[in-house]
Model the fold of this input.
Amino acid sequence: MGTKILYIEDNFANRMLVSRILKVEDYEVFEAEDGPTGIELAMKEKPDLILMDVNLPDIDGYELTSKMREIPELANTPIIAMTANVMQGDREKSLNAGCDGYIPKPIDVDVLPDQIANFLEKQAKGELRSD
Ligand code: MN
Done:
């Protein structure tokens, strides 16, 4: 069975770019452009990893992460925040919201596959939350 990744992102160009890269890496990719669709797809597909854009129009990615953490089926799904707001404290903010890590934007297409693989590897070893 393939590794499922859910990508929650409102920006069409980013969705196309990241989805294409992930599909090349043979991940099964699901896309959501807003929070409600993200939760719905997460419940339905039980992804191995969620990539969470922080700046969403209806709800910010941190709030959405907190919401997902309250849903038992999603409480332990790895969530990686993708944010351009990389300032001091941002890592803490994403971790406090229940994210397991973050990938800074702009996305580096040459590095993204390794970043994803590292998160999945850590998850498999049970190391992600203690990071
Ligand atoms: Mn956005």
